[in-house]
Structure formats: structure tokens, C-alpha cells
């Protein structure tokens, strides 16, 4: 069985450390040579991020993985997979994603004609600021670079202003005050040198965890025999999903250490950003805004049925109910 | 008759191009306004998104003007070695191929619109632009280009059959006789 | 697959099918013969997402900027002023072409827009003063490529975006190599014209008073440069947005130094649409071709090839240079960058090279690709501005400058500080 597989960003650890070994070694070996994989990535194909899943549904390739957020244009209900600030640790995030999984399965089947195989995390999306920040409340009135609609709405509810700046232009924008803060993965911010131009780090997932969904074209999936289906489903959990999740928490701790110098940095030279501890009151307020403004807004966009399903699954796990 | 038709198409597409040009100008003004407003601590928001849409629309609707002004780049190293009849054959052949490709693009552009239509897709941005609002006019631009390309090809074929090869060259040759840049 | 693409490309281009359409046809061919997957289903999405791009809107903005400068007479006066200063050199007005291109490069992020602007003002002079069309037009095509080396630069923005490196640092790094290249172009022109004086046309000297008075005509361009680059470094505008600042600046300058009329406005706008669509048909075709090439495994072939060589860092970088020269013949430059950066840059960094430095080296190679046939946009743009003569002449005339760029690439490898001095020093 030949599979053409489109991976996530080729430059990021998720692809190099987990996607590549799984699709090029683990799975072909476990199948005893029955499965052959041709692996590329969406950026190597110069695919638009929003095109990855629609083309998967049309059968242009067999398997694709990218951040679920890029698909919310076509499926607003998918925003419920990655709600900011509800999961503070990797374990919580995984519990949340697992609870959302049946919803995600349905969304991908109906919207993109595909079968979900796995959901793995990117590092959580934390906040870099170039001025003194003591709490979440201090974000009020600041210009913040955020990606994703739900994060932007939360920032607005917090009194900040969401600004659209592309990743590469963030350092310049931070340096010159075009933005005061910017949200991205801690590891990406470290390797792109954001610590040069920002002073304070809020290590909370204000931008969520950016779960990466791996899915297979549904026609292709249905054409496989039950044995192969079972093999892929089980191998991808043990050979990819579990490993990626297991390292997520350590990666966050390490990246924060590298950025702030608090703790041991194993991936390079430690920097000296100021680590901002967020108080419980801050959290309470943010979650309050989330449940009173941001999530009801999402419920309206995606439809009451999805909100109800979310309440019964993800909501139960994280202890939040959309009114 | 063919020449008259081409004149009409040229006049029509010049108007379209002017409209596209003013659209681009408006986009520049919009970006500039945003830059100035940011100096005063506020922002229009969404300039990057709107600039992208402007580019997509300008591209699809500007194509046929460039076609009628003979602006799409062709390599004529071999073609120039032939006399008028041979050149006319090259020109008509390349127009037929081009028309085929453009029609294919126009047809394949529809599923993009249809996908957004069935999903009610909105941009993943604070503006939440319904994508169909942009994608439908974008699609229409490619259809327009396909129609213009087909009509031009038919005119050229007509002239070729009437053995008016010099005139064929004037409407689908490799370079414009009078350059619009001058 | 590579032979198929190369032969197919040459054959279809020889049939004089429009370049952009040829790229689509090759994409269809790869889909049909080299890929087990129905890639054509992705055609609509590729056309949509390659044109729905906020970065690319800098192209029409920079073209419009050039059109306004040309049609208000500002560009012609700049050209005449630089003519006063450099035409005493062997080669005469050819130096004015290079100097003008260098100057406009500082206000334009696009090589094609730069070449279009200079070609429009310079070409009538060549015919009037009896210059050899080869060297004269080749110098414009080559000088125009500086548009992406001297800041601002669309291609450096794209590089910064794809490699997640700092765009302002890349801009700083491009400054010295850009100016050095311009000087080397002039040096090469002098050498050629000393050997073959008939190629250079008239050498002319002007009284000092005239030369000094001409400096006034350079002021508009200097103001424009200050506006564009200043807005980036003051943090008022992103590098892409700065193109819009440039358009506004061009209007102000045209208003102050030339004049704006309805006719001029409409001609500038339709001219912009014409050039933009010409470029975009090629850009869109190229991105569809890339998509099919990547899907059919070009990335794997490249990676396997490079890794299989097992070279030292120096050997590796030399292979990269050769690779870009070869691919640069056939692939449009923006797509060339988009498709190769994710594959090549990580390998280059592993060899211990600096990401900013490699960005500049790549830009030199991309500049070469812009003036090498059969796919060399600058050649077409310059040819498009001529009233007579064939494309061969432009290609031939660009050849010495091509070799100069190659020399520059080697200089960069030998002395990385040519690129890295400014960004390091100004840190
Ligand atoms: Na430039
Ligand atoms: Na080339």
C-alpha cells in the first residue's frame, strides 16, 4: 500500500522528531513492508495553510497533518478543539483533546471527507512582551500580535488590541513598538530570537496548544482492509501521538528555562527574560471572560448543537460550561 | 468584423483595467491610513487580509487586459525566423493552447468557491470575512479571462482563414506595436 | 522527471506559448506522468492561494511607484542627472543605466519593477545616441536585479518569512553587497568598453556647474528612499506596507516636482495592471508547477542528492551555488525560493553557515536567475520596453553581468563579512 503523506512545518521539532521517524520507519516496519510512505510537508509543496485539508478531502494526497486552527475557516466548530487558557499543562491539554476527539472525528468526516488518525500538540502558545508586565490585567490597552480568532477575541475581552503581524516581522514590530506583545510557541520564539527584543515572558497558553490533526482521506481509508486500518490506528498512537505528548511538557519547561534562565536549558544558551507569574485572580478573571464572552460567541458561530456537545465532553473535563 | 470586435474588447478591458488600478490605489490608501492611525494608537485592522484579497482580485481581473495588450511574455526566438503566415500559425496555436489552459483554470476555480459556499467558510481572522464574497468575484475574473481569451482566439482564427496574416499578428502577435509604457 | 521538465519547457517555449501557460502545461504533464495522485484537483486552490497574498501586493505597489516616477518626468530627470556624473567613463550612458537602477533599487523592492522603470526612461536614449543595443539593454536588465538586494526587497521579506530570520537584519546585510555589485557592474562595463570601444557609444563630459546643478534632481529619489526605508526602521510600517508608503511618496514627489494629470494617473494605473498581470500569470503558473514537482518527489530527490554527496562545508556550498544556477535557468525566482528554502536552508545551517549570510548569497544567485534564459523575467521586461530588436540581444548583453554576479557569490563565500559586517556592527 503506497501512502502519500503531507507533514506539518518541516522546520519544527514535531515534524523532525516525531512525524519523520513514524511515517518513514515505524509504520513501514510494523507493516512488514506492506506500507510504503512518501513523505513531504505542506511548506515544501508551497501549499496554502488553509488548503491542506480541503485538498486532502479531494484525494490529492492520502494523509495530511497541520494545525487544526488553519481549518476553522471551513469549520468554525473546530475552534472548540483549542480553547486558550483552559489547559495549563500538557496532561490537561491531552485530556481536553481526547474529550474533543469524537467531535473532531465528525467534523473531519463531514467537512473534509477524512478520517482522523491522531491529534498531537505543538508547544503551547505563550506571550512575549517588550514592556513590564506583572499580570494579565496589564495587557489592557496593549497591542498584541495573535494568531487565531478565539485568541484575538479573548484579547479584546481583556482590553488588549489584536494586531495581525506575520511571524517573521514580529521582532521588528516588538522592537519598534508596532506591537507591545506577541503570542507564539516558546520554542519558536527562542529560536527566532524574540528574546532579543522582548523583556517579559508570560508562560501561559494564551494562544492555546495548537493541536496538529493527522487525517487520512476517507475514500482511501475505506479502501484499506480492516487489518491495515487497525494497524495504522494503533501504531500511530504508540509510535507518534504518545511520544509527542510525552515530550510536550518537558519541552515547555525547557523552553521557558532557555528564555528566562530559570532552570536548566538543554537546547542552547539560556537568556534572561523576566518570568511573569500569573496570579489566581488573574486566571479567574480570564476564565470568566472566556465563559461569559468568548465561548458564547463561538457557540453562536458554530451553532447550539456543537456548544451542547462541547459542554458534555470538553466542558466536563475542564470544568467549564458555556451558558 | 474581427478587427472591430477586437477594438471593442480592448476598449472594454481597458475600462476593467482602470477599475482594477483604482482598486489597487484604494488598497494602498487603506494600508497607508492604517499605518498613520497606528501612530495615534488605533488601527483599522485587517489590512493584511484585505491586501491579499485585493491582490487575488486584481490578478484575475487584470489578466485579460494584459492579453489584449499582448503583454503576456512569449519567447519568439524560433517564431521570428518565419514569415507572416508561419508566425500567424504560431500565434493562433499558442492562443488555442492558452485558451484551453485558462478555461481549465476557470473550471477548476469553481470547486474552491463551492467548498466555501457549502461550508459557509469565513476567514480565520477578527474580520471573519465570508470567503465567498471574495472568491466568487475572483472566480468570475477567471471566467471573464476565459471568455476574452476564447473570443480573441476566434477572431484570430477568422483572420487566419481569410488569409489576413498581418492583421492576425496585430491582435495576437508576440509584442505590441505601440508600447503602452512609452 | 528533471529531463522531462527541461525538454518540455524548452520545446513549449520554442513554440512561443506564453511562459506562464507553459508552466501550467508542465504541471499538467507531471500530474499525468509522474504522480499517482490527481494533482489537477488542487489547481483551483493553488491559483487562489498563490494570488491571495498580502506579500505579493508589494509588486503592483512598486510597479505603480515606478510608473508615477516615469510619467511625471521625475525618473527621466534622475537619469539625466546621473548621466552628467557617470557618462565620462568608458561606456558612457551604460553607466547611467546602472547608476539609475541602483538608485531606484533603493526605493523598490522588486527587481522587475526596477528594470521596468529604468528601461522605460533609458531605452529611448539608446536609440537616439546610437548605443550598442546588447550591452545597453543588458546593463538595464542586470542593474534592475539590484532591486531585490538593496533594501527594500520583496525576496528578502519572503526569505525572512520562510526561514524565520530577522527582515531588518537581512535588509542591512544586503546594503553593502548591493552597492558593491553596482560598482562591479560599472567596472566590468569599463573593462568591456576599453577592449571594445564601439560597444560603449559616446563618452561625454559636462561642466562642473552642470554636474552640481544636476544633484538637485537626485533629491526626490533620496527623499523617497528615506520615506520607505525610514518607515521600516522607525517601526512605522512593516517591509510590505512600506511599498504603500512608497506609492504615497511617489505621488507627493510627482506633485511637487513634475505634475499629476488625469491622463498620467490612468496610464500609470493601466500600466501597473498590465505588468502585474504579466508577472502574476508566471508566478501562479510557477506555484502550480512547484506543487506538482514537490508532490512528485522533487524535494526527496534534492535531499537525497545533497546528502549523498557527503561534502565538506565549502564543497557543499559550492554545490548549492551550482544548483541555484541550474534551477535558476528554468524556475521563476519567487517560486524557486519558496520551493528550495525549506529543503536547502536547514542543510546549510547544519554545515555551520549563518542564516542571514546565506540569505544574501541566495539573493545574488536569484539575481542571476532573473537574467538567465529561458525563464528570466528581467530580460522580458527590458525587451518589452524596446521598440525593435530581439530578445537574444538582451540575453547576450546581460551575460557579462551574470558572470560578475557569480564573482560576487564567490566573494561572499570567501569574505562573509561583506554581508555580515553591517548587521553585526549595528547590533
Ligand atoms: Na530594493
Ligand atoms: Na532564469
Automatic annotation (TrEMBL), chain B:
Biological classification of the source: Bacteria, Pseudomonadati, Pseudomonadota, Alphaproteobacteria, Rhodobacterales
Protein name: TRAP transporter small permease protein
Function: Part of the tripartite ATP-independent periplasmic (TRAP) transport system.
Subcellular localization, as worded in the UniProt entry: Cell inner membrane
Residue intervals of the Tripartite ATP-independent periplasmic transporters DctQ component domain: 29-152
Subunit relationships: The complex comprises the extracytoplasmic solute receptor protein and the two transmembrane proteins.
Membrane topology reported for the UniProt record: Multi-pass membrane protein
Top-level taxon of the source organism: Bacteria
Keyword Cell inner membrane: yes
Main location: membrane
Transmembrane segments: 16-38, 50-68, 88-110, 139-161
Keywords of this entry: Cell inner membrane, Cell membrane, Membrane, Transmembrane, Transmembrane helix, Transport
Keyword presence, Amino-acid biosynthesis: no
Organism this protein belongs to: Octadecabacter dasysiphoniae
InterPro entries per the UniProt record, alphabetical: DctQ, TRAP_DctQ
Family: Belongs to the TRAP transporter small permease family.
UniProtKB/TrEMBL annotation, chain C:
Keyword Membrane part of the UniProt annotation: yes
Localization per Swiss-Prot or TrEMBL: Cell inner membrane
Keywords tagged on the record: Cell inner membrane, Cell membrane, Membrane, Transmembrane, Transmembrane helix, Transport
Highest taxon in the source lineage: Bacteria
InterPro entries per UniProt: DctM, TRAP_DctM
Residue spans crossing the bilayer: 6-34, 54-74, 135-158, 170-195, 215-236, 242-265, 277-298, 304-327, 334-350, 356-382, 394-422
Membrane topology value: Multi-pass membrane protein
Domain TRAP C4-dicarboxylate transport system permease DctM subunit stretches: 7-418
Principal localisation: membrane
Subunit structure: The complex comprises the extracytoplasmic solute receptor protein and the two transmembrane proteins.
Function: Part of the tripartite ATP-independent periplasmic (TRAP) transport system.
Family designation: Belongs to the TRAP transporter large permease family.
Protein name according to UniProt: TRAP transporter large permease protein
Source organism of this protein record: Octadecabacter dasysiphoniae
Amino acid at each position: 500500500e503506497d501512502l502519500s503523506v503531507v507533514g506539518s512545518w518541516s522546520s519544527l521539532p514535531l515534524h523532525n522528531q516525531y512525524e519523520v521517524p513514524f511515517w518513514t520507519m515505524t509504520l513501514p516496519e510494523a507493516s512488514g513492508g506492506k506500507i510504503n510512505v512518501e513523505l513531504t510537508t505542506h511548506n515544501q509543496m508551497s501549499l496554502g495553510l488553509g488548503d491542506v485539508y480541503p485538498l486532502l478531502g479531494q484525494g490529492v494526497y492520502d494523509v495530511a497533518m497541520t494545525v487544526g486552527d488553519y481549518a476553522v475557516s471551513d469549520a468554525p466548530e473546530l475552534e472548540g478543539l483549542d480553547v486558550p487558557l483552559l489547559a495549563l499543562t500538557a496532561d490537561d491539554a491531552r485530556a481536553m483533546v481526547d474529550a474533543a476527539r469524537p467531535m473532531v472525528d465528525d467534523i473531519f468526516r463531514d467537512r473534509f471527507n477524512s478520517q482522523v488518525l491522531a491529534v498531537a500538540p505543538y508547544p503551547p502558545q505563550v506571550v512575549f512582551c517588550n514592556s513590564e508586565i506583572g499580570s494579565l490585567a496589564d495587557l489592557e490597552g496593549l497591542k498584541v500580535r495573535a494568531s487565531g480568532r478565539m485568541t484575538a477575541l479573548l484579547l479584546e475581552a481583556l482590553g488588549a488590541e489584536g494586531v495581525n503581524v506575520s511571524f517573521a516581522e514580529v521582532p521588528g514590530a516588538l522592537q519598534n513598538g508596532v506591537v507591545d506583545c506577541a503570542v507564539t510557541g516558546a520554542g519558536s520564539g527562542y529560536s527566532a530570537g524574540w528574546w532579543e527584543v522582548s523583556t517579559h515572558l508570560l508562560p501561559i497558553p494564551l494562544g492555546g496548544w495548537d493541536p496538529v490533526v493527522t487525517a487520512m482521506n476517507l475514500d482511501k481509508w475505506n479502501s484499506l482492509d480492516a487489518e491495515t486500518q487497525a494497524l495504522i490506528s494503533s501504531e500511530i498512537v504508540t509510535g507518534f501521538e504518545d511520544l509527542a505528548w510525552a515530550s510536550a511538557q518537558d519541552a515547555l519547561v525547557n523552553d521557558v528555562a532557555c528564555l528566562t534562565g530559570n532552570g536548566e536549558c538543554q537546547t542552547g544558551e539560556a537568556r534572561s527574560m523576566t518570568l511573569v507569574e500569573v496570579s489566581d485572580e488573574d486566571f479567574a478573571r480570564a476564565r470568566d471572560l472566556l465563559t461569559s464572552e468568548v465561548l458564547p460567541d463561538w457557540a453562536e458561530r458554530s451553532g447550539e448543537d456543537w456548544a451542547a456537545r462541547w459542554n458534555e465532553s470538553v466542558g466536563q473535563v475542564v470544568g467549564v460550561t458555556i451558558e | 468584423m474581427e478587427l472591430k470586435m477586437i477594438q471593442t474588447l480592448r476598449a472594454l478591458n481597458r475600462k476593467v483595467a482602470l477599475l482594477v488600478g483604482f482598486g489597487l490605489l484604494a488598497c494602498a490608501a487603506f494600508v497607508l491610513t492604517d499605518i498613520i492611525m497606528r501612530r495615534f494608537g488605533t488601527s483599522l485592522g485587517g489590512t493584511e487580509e484585505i491586501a491579499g484579497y485585493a491582490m487575488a482580485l486584481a490578478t484575475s481581473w487584470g489578466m485579460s487586459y494584459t492579453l489584449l495588450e499582448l503583454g503576456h511574455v512569449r519567447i519568439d526566438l524560433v517564431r521570428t525566423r518565419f514569415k507572416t503566415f508561419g508566425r500567424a500559425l504560431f500565434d493562433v496555436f499558442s492562443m488555442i493552447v492558452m485558451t484551453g489552459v485558462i478555461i481549465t483554470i476557470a473550471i477548476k476555480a469553481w470547486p474552491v468557491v463551492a467548498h466555501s459556499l457549502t461550508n459557509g467558510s469565513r476567514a480565520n481572522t477578527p474580520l471573519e470575512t465570508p470567503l465567498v464574497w471574495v472568491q466568487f468575484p475572483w472566480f468570475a475574473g477567471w471566467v471573464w479571462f476565459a471568455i476574452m481569451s476564447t473570443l480573441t482566439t476566434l477572431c484570430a482564427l477568422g483572420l487566419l482563414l481569410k488569409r489576413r496574416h498581418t492583421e492576425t499578428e496585430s491582435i495576437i502577435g508576440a509584442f505590441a506595436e505601440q508600447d503602452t509604457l512609452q | 522527471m528533471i529531463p522531462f521538465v527541461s525538454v518540455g519547457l524548452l520545446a513549449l517555449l520554442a513554440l512561443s506559448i506564453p511562459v506562464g501557460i507553459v508552466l501550467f502545461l508542465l504541471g499538467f504533464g507531471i500530474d499525468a506522468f509522474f504522480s499517482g495522485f490527481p494533482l489537477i484537483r488542487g489547481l483551483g486552490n493553488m491559483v487562489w492561494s498563490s494570488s491571495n497574498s498580502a506579500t505579493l501586493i508589494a509588486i503592483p505597489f512598486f510597479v505603480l511607484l515606478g510608473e508615477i516616477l516615469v510619467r511625471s518626468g521625475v525618473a527621466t530627470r534622475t537619469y539625466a542627472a546621473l548621466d552628467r556624473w557617470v557618462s565620462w567613463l568608458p561606456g558612457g550612458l551604460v553607466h547611467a543605466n546602472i547608476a539609475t537602477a541602483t538608485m531606484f533599487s533603493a526605493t523598490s523592492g522588486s527587481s522587475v519593477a526596477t528594470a521596468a522603470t529604468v528601461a522605460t526612461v533609458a531605452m529611448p536614449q539608446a536609440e537616439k545616441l546610437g548605443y550598442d543595443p546588447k550591452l545597453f539593454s543588458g546593463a538595464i536588465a542586470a542593474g534592475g536585479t539590484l532591486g531585490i538586494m538593496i533594501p527594500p526587497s520583496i525576496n528578502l521579506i519572503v526569505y525572512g518569512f520562510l526561514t524565520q530570520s530577522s527582515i531588518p537584519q537581512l535588509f542591512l546585510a544586503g546594503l553593502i553587497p548591493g552597492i558593491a555589485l553596482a560598482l562591479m557592474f560599472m567596472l566590468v562595463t569599463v573593462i568591456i568598453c576599453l577592449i571594445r570601444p564601439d560597444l560603449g557609444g559616446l563618452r561625454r563630459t559636462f561642466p562642473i556647474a552642470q554636474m552640481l546643478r544636476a544633484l538637485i534632481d537626485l533629491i526626490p529619489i533620496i527623499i523617497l528612499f528615506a520615506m520607505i526605508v525610514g518607515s521600516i526602521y522607525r517601526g512605522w510600517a512593516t517591509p510590505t506596507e512600506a511599498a504603500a508608503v512608497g506609492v504615497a511618496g511617489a505621488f507627493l514627489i510627482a506633485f511637487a516636482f513634475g505634475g499629476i494629470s488625469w491622463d498620467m494617473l490612468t496610464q500609470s494605473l493601466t500600466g501597473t495592471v498590465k505588468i502585474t498581470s504579466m508577472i502574476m500569470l508566471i508566478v501562479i503558473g510557477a506555484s502550480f508547477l512547484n506543487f506538482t514537482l514537490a508532490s512528485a518527489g522533487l524535494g526527496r530527490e534534492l535531499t537525497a542528492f545533497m546528502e549523498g554527496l557527503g561534502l565538506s562545508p565549502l564543497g557543499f556550498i559550492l554545490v548549492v551555488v551550482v544548483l541555484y544556477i541550474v534551477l535558476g535557468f528554468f524556475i521563476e525566482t519567487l517560486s524557486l525560493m519558496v520551493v528550495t528554502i525549506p529543503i536547502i536552508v536547514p542543510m546549510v545551517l547544519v554545515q555551520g553557515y549563518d542564516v542571514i549570510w546565506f540569505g544574501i548569497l541566495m539573493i545574488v544567485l536569484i539575481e542571476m536567475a532573473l537574467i538567465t534564459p529561458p525563464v528570466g523575467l528581467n530580460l522580458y521586461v527590458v525587451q518589452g520596453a524596446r521598440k525593435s530588436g530581439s530578445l537574444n540581444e538582451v540575453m547576450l548583453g546581460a551575460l557579462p553581468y551574470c558572470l560578475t554576479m557569480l564573482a560576487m557569490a564567490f566573494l561572499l563565500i570567501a569574505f562573509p563579512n561583506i554581508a555580515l559586517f553591517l548587521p553585526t556592527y549595528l547590533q
